Amino acid sequence: MSHFPRHPVPTGRTYTAGNYSSGTYRAQSGAEIRILFGNKRLGSTVQLVYNNIPDADAEVILDHYNSVKGTFESFEAGGATLNAGWTATTGALNTTVMVTDTEWRYAQPPQLQSGYIGLSSVTVDLVAVTV
Amino acid sequence: MAYYSGPNGELWIDGAVAGQVKDWRFTTTVAVMDTTALGQTDGTSNYGLRNTAGTCTLFYWQDGANTGGDCSTLIQHVVQGRTNVAVQGVAAAPRHVNLRLKVDDGSTNGRYIRGEVLITAVNMAMSQGEIFSANIAFQFIGAPVEATL
Lengths: 131, 149
Known about the structure:
By secondary structure, chain A is α+β, with helices and mostly antiparallel strands. Chain A has one domain (12-130). Helix content of chain A is 16%, strand content 44%. In chain B, strands 1, 2, 3, 4, 5, 6, 7 and 8 form an 8-stranded antiparallel sheet that branches. The radius of gyration of chain B is 20 Å and the shape is globular.
Protein backbone atom coordinates (compact mmCIF):
# COMPACT_ATOMS: atom_id res chain seq x y z
CA MET A 1 0.00 0.00 0.00
CA SER A 2 1.41 3.33 -1.03
CA HIS A 3 1.80 6.00 1.58
CA PHE A 4 1.77 9.73 1.02
CA PRO A 5 5.28 11.16 1.51
CA ARG A 6 6.02 11.84 5.19
CA HIS A 7 8.62 14.35 4.10
CA PRO A 8 8.55 17.27 3.38
CA VAL A 9 6.37 18.67 6.15
CA PRO A 10 3.64 21.00 4.89
CA THR A 11 3.85 24.69 5.66
CA GLY A 12 0.08 24.99 5.67
CA ARG A 13 -2.91 22.67 5.87
CA THR A 14 -6.64 23.12 5.43
CA TYR A 15 -8.81 20.24 6.54
CA THR A 16 -12.47 19.89 5.74
CA ALA A 17 -14.17 17.23 7.83
CA GLY A 18 -16.59 15.79 5.32
CA ASN A 19 -20.04 14.61 6.31
CA TYR A 20 -22.28 11.63 6.81
CA SER A 21 -24.56 10.67 3.98
CA SER A 22 -28.11 11.66 4.79
CA GLY A 23 -31.30 12.92 3.26
CA THR A 24 -33.49 15.77 4.41
CA TYR A 25 -37.21 15.86 3.73
CA ARG A 26 -39.51 18.70 4.62
CA ALA A 27 -43.25 18.39 4.85
CA GLN A 28 -45.63 21.14 3.79
CA SER A 29 -46.21 21.78 7.47
CA GLY A 30 -42.53 22.69 7.79
CA ALA A 31 -41.58 19.60 9.74
CA GLU A 32 -38.20 18.25 8.75
CA ILE A 33 -37.22 14.59 8.67
CA ARG A 34 -33.62 13.51 8.21
CA ILE A 35 -32.59 9.98 7.31
CA LEU A 36 -29.06 8.73 7.87
CA PHE A 37 -27.92 6.55 4.98
CA GLY A 38 -24.62 5.31 6.36
CA ASN A 39 -22.28 5.13 9.33
CA LYS A 40 -19.16 6.55 7.72
CA ARG A 41 -18.12 10.09 7.28
CA LEU A 42 -17.45 10.74 3.64
CA GLY A 43 -15.76 13.34 1.50
CA SER A 44 -13.18 14.72 3.89
CA THR A 45 -10.66 16.84 2.06
CA VAL A 46 -7.32 18.28 2.95
CA GLN A 47 -5.27 20.85 1.15
CA LEU A 48 -1.57 20.73 1.84
CA VAL A 49 0.58 23.72 1.02
CA TYR A 50 4.36 23.48 0.79
CA ASN A 51 5.83 26.94 0.46
CA ASN A 52 9.42 27.44 -0.65
CA ILE A 53 10.53 23.86 -0.33
CA PRO A 54 13.63 22.56 -2.11
CA ASP A 55 12.99 21.34 -5.64
CA ALA A 56 14.07 17.84 -4.61
CA ASP A 57 11.25 17.73 -2.04
CA ALA A 58 8.78 18.97 -4.61
CA GLU A 59 9.91 16.18 -6.86
CA VAL A 60 9.10 13.64 -4.13
CA ILE A 61 5.48 14.76 -4.25
CA LEU A 62 5.34 14.65 -8.03
CA ASP A 63 6.91 11.19 -8.00
CA HIS A 64 4.28 9.96 -5.56
CA TYR A 65 1.51 11.46 -7.67
CA ASN A 66 2.90 9.55 -10.60
CA SER A 67 3.30 6.32 -8.64
CA VAL A 68 -0.41 6.22 -7.74
CA LYS A 69 -1.45 6.93 -11.31
CA GLY A 70 -2.54 10.46 -10.60
CA THR A 71 -6.03 10.72 -9.16
CA PHE A 72 -6.75 7.03 -9.82
CA GLU A 73 -5.31 5.04 -6.92
CA SER A 74 -5.85 5.65 -3.22
CA PHE A 75 -3.19 5.57 -0.52
CA GLU A 76 -2.62 6.02 3.17
CA ALA A 77 -1.66 9.34 4.66
CA GLY A 78 -0.83 10.39 8.15
CA GLY A 79 2.08 11.18 10.37
CA ALA A 80 3.64 14.58 9.88
CA THR A 81 1.61 15.15 6.76
CA LEU A 82 -1.70 15.36 8.55
CA ASN A 83 -0.62 15.91 12.13
CA ALA A 84 2.34 18.28 12.12
CA GLY A 85 1.52 21.19 14.38
CA TRP A 86 -1.70 19.51 15.59
CA THR A 87 -1.63 19.09 19.37
CA ALA A 88 -4.96 17.40 20.01
CA THR A 89 -5.73 13.73 19.48
CA THR A 90 -3.25 12.22 17.09
CA GLY A 91 -5.00 11.13 13.96
CA ALA A 92 -8.07 13.27 14.45
CA LEU A 93 -7.36 14.83 11.11
CA ASN A 94 -6.71 11.50 9.48
CA THR A 95 -9.81 9.66 8.40
CA THR A 96 -7.73 6.51 8.09
CA VAL A 97 -7.66 6.50 11.87
CA MET A 98 -11.06 8.01 12.51
CA VAL A 99 -12.92 5.79 10.10
CA THR A 100 -11.68 2.40 9.09
CA ASP A 101 -11.52 1.42 5.45
CA THR A 102 -10.78 4.98 4.43
CA GLU A 103 -7.83 6.18 2.38
CA TRP A 104 -6.92 9.23 0.39
CA ARG A 105 -6.49 10.01 -3.24
CA TYR A 106 -5.49 13.10 -5.15
CA ALA A 107 -8.50 15.30 -5.85
CA GLN A 108 -6.60 16.99 -8.65
CA PRO A 109 -3.04 17.12 -9.92
CA PRO A 110 -0.56 18.86 -7.60
CA GLN A 111 0.18 22.46 -8.53
CA LEU A 112 3.81 23.48 -8.53
CA GLN A 113 4.94 27.07 -8.60
CA SER A 114 8.58 27.91 -9.23
CA GLY A 115 9.49 31.16 -7.53
CA TYR A 116 13.23 31.16 -7.04
CA ILE A 117 16.23 29.10 -8.02
CA GLY A 118 16.04 25.76 -6.25
CA LEU A 119 12.82 26.52 -4.39
CA SER A 120 9.28 25.64 -5.31
CA SER A 121 5.84 25.90 -3.79
CA VAL A 122 3.46 22.99 -4.13
CA THR A 123 -0.24 22.71 -3.41
CA VAL A 124 -1.79 19.27 -2.99
CA ASP A 125 -5.52 18.57 -2.71
CA LEU A 126 -6.51 15.20 -1.27
CA VAL A 127 -9.93 13.70 -0.80
CA ALA A 128 -10.82 10.81 1.50
CA VAL A 129 -12.33 7.75 -0.12
CA THR A 130 -13.79 4.58 1.34
CA VAL A 131 -12.10 1.43 0.10
CA MET B 1 44.24 52.80 7.66
CA ALA B 2 41.82 55.59 6.97
CA TYR B 3 38.23 56.67 7.12
CA TYR B 4 36.58 58.06 4.04
CA SER B 5 34.10 60.84 3.60
CA GLY B 6 32.69 63.20 1.03
CA PRO B 7 36.00 64.34 -0.51
CA ASN B 8 36.79 60.68 -1.33
CA GLY B 9 33.53 60.08 -3.21
CA GLU B 10 33.07 60.04 -6.95
CA LEU B 11 30.22 59.33 -9.30
CA TRP B 12 30.99 58.15 -12.81
CA ILE B 13 28.46 58.41 -15.62
CA ASP B 14 29.07 56.19 -18.64
CA GLY B 15 32.77 55.91 -17.90
CA ALA B 16 33.48 59.57 -17.07
CA VAL B 17 33.70 61.09 -13.65
CA ALA B 18 30.87 63.52 -12.99
CA GLY B 19 31.35 66.93 -11.46
CA GLN B 20 29.27 68.74 -8.89
CA VAL B 21 27.96 65.61 -7.25
CA LYS B 22 26.51 66.33 -3.85
CA ASP B 23 25.93 62.78 -2.68
CA TRP B 24 25.25 59.22 -3.67
CA ARG B 25 23.95 56.29 -1.76
CA PHE B 26 22.77 52.80 -2.48
CA THR B 27 20.88 50.04 -0.74
CA THR B 28 21.08 46.32 -1.40
CA THR B 29 18.06 44.38 -0.23
CA VAL B 30 17.47 40.66 -0.18
CA ALA B 31 13.98 39.24 -0.06
CA VAL B 32 13.33 36.66 2.63
CA MET B 33 11.27 33.61 1.71
CA ASP B 34 9.37 31.96 4.54
CA THR B 35 10.02 28.22 4.88
CA THR B 36 8.32 27.65 8.23
CA ALA B 37 6.69 24.22 8.33
CA LEU B 38 3.81 23.06 10.48
CA GLY B 39 4.92 22.07 13.94
CA GLN B 40 7.81 24.52 14.15
CA THR B 41 7.87 27.10 16.90
CA ASP B 42 10.27 29.53 15.23
CA GLY B 43 10.17 30.93 11.77
CA THR B 44 12.68 29.72 9.23
CA SER B 45 13.53 31.40 5.98
CA ASN B 46 15.71 31.37 2.95
CA TYR B 47 17.27 33.99 0.73
CA GLY B 48 15.17 35.20 -2.16
CA LEU B 49 15.75 37.82 -4.81
CA ARG B 50 18.35 40.52 -4.28
CA ASN B 51 18.02 44.07 -5.52
CA THR B 52 20.34 47.05 -5.47
CA ALA B 53 19.06 50.56 -5.87
CA GLY B 54 20.16 54.01 -4.86
CA THR B 55 19.96 57.76 -5.22
CA CYS B 56 22.33 60.55 -6.08
CA THR B 57 22.12 64.30 -6.05
CA LEU B 58 23.85 66.44 -8.67
CA PHE B 59 24.05 70.21 -8.64
CA TYR B 60 22.88 71.71 -11.87
CA TRP B 61 26.11 73.30 -13.11
CA GLN B 62 27.18 74.50 -16.58
CA ASP B 63 30.51 75.67 -17.95
CA GLY B 64 28.65 78.44 -19.79
CA ALA B 65 25.24 79.36 -21.05
CA ASN B 66 23.39 76.48 -22.66
CA THR B 67 26.33 74.08 -22.40
CA GLY B 68 24.65 71.48 -20.30
CA GLY B 69 26.58 69.49 -17.77
CA ASP B 70 26.71 66.19 -15.96
CA CYS B 71 23.35 66.78 -14.32
CA SER B 72 21.76 67.41 -17.71
CA THR B 73 23.52 64.39 -19.16
CA LEU B 74 22.07 62.14 -16.49
CA ILE B 75 18.52 63.39 -16.33
CA GLN B 76 18.17 63.39 -20.10
CA HIS B 77 18.34 59.63 -20.00
CA VAL B 78 14.70 59.80 -18.92
CA VAL B 79 13.50 63.40 -19.16
CA GLN B 80 12.57 63.77 -22.81
CA GLY B 81 10.48 66.14 -24.85
CA ARG B 82 8.15 65.06 -27.60
CA THR B 83 9.61 63.47 -30.70
CA ASN B 84 7.14 65.51 -32.74
CA VAL B 85 5.72 68.61 -31.09
CA ALA B 86 2.35 67.87 -32.61
CA VAL B 87 2.17 64.34 -31.17
CA GLN B 88 1.44 64.39 -27.47
CA GLY B 89 2.05 60.78 -26.60
CA VAL B 90 5.43 60.02 -28.16
CA ALA B 91 8.90 60.85 -26.86
CA ALA B 92 12.23 59.07 -26.86
CA ALA B 93 12.23 55.99 -24.65
CA PRO B 94 14.16 56.15 -21.37
CA ARG B 95 17.70 54.84 -21.61
CA HIS B 96 19.70 53.01 -19.01
CA VAL B 97 23.06 54.37 -17.93
CA ASN B 98 26.29 53.00 -16.53
CA LEU B 99 27.05 54.33 -13.09
CA ARG B 100 30.07 53.83 -10.89
CA LEU B 101 29.79 54.77 -7.23
CA LYS B 102 33.39 55.10 -6.20
CA VAL B 103 35.49 55.64 -3.12
CA ASP B 104 38.90 57.05 -4.00
CA ASP B 105 41.12 55.25 -1.52
CA GLY B 106 44.34 56.23 -3.21
CA SER B 107 44.67 53.01 -5.16
CA THR B 108 44.74 52.97 -8.96
CA ASN B 109 41.08 52.14 -9.45
CA GLY B 110 39.70 52.88 -6.04
CA ARG B 111 36.85 50.85 -4.56
CA TYR B 112 33.47 50.99 -6.21
CA ILE B 113 30.22 49.44 -7.24
CA ARG B 114 29.34 49.79 -10.88
CA GLY B 115 26.76 48.54 -13.32
CA GLU B 116 23.90 49.37 -15.65
CA VAL B 117 21.07 51.13 -13.94
CA LEU B 118 17.58 52.26 -14.75
CA ILE B 119 16.79 55.76 -13.64
CA THR B 120 13.52 55.37 -11.81
CA ALA B 121 12.88 58.93 -10.67
CA VAL B 122 14.20 62.44 -11.22
CA ASN B 123 13.29 65.15 -8.76
CA MET B 124 14.27 68.77 -9.34
CA ALA B 125 13.19 71.81 -7.40
CA MET B 126 14.11 75.48 -7.83
CA SER B 127 13.80 77.54 -4.71
CA GLN B 128 15.18 80.66 -3.05
CA GLY B 129 18.27 80.08 -0.99
CA GLU B 130 19.13 76.71 -2.51
CA ILE B 131 21.32 75.60 -5.36
CA PHE B 132 19.32 74.11 -8.21
CA SER B 133 19.97 70.37 -8.22
CA ALA B 134 18.51 67.05 -9.24
CA ASN B 135 17.81 64.13 -6.96
CA ILE B 136 17.94 60.98 -9.03
CA ALA B 137 16.82 57.50 -8.03
CA PHE B 138 18.12 54.45 -9.85
CA GLN B 139 17.96 50.70 -9.77
CA PHE B 140 20.63 48.31 -10.94
CA ILE B 141 19.73 45.96 -13.74
CA GLY B 142 20.51 42.61 -12.20
CA ALA B 143 23.64 42.37 -10.11
CA PRO B 144 26.30 45.07 -10.28
CA VAL B 145 28.96 44.36 -12.89
CA GLU B 146 31.58 44.85 -10.21
CA ALA B 147 31.32 45.44 -6.50
CA THR B 148 34.63 45.97 -4.79
CA LEU B 149 33.58 48.15 -1.89
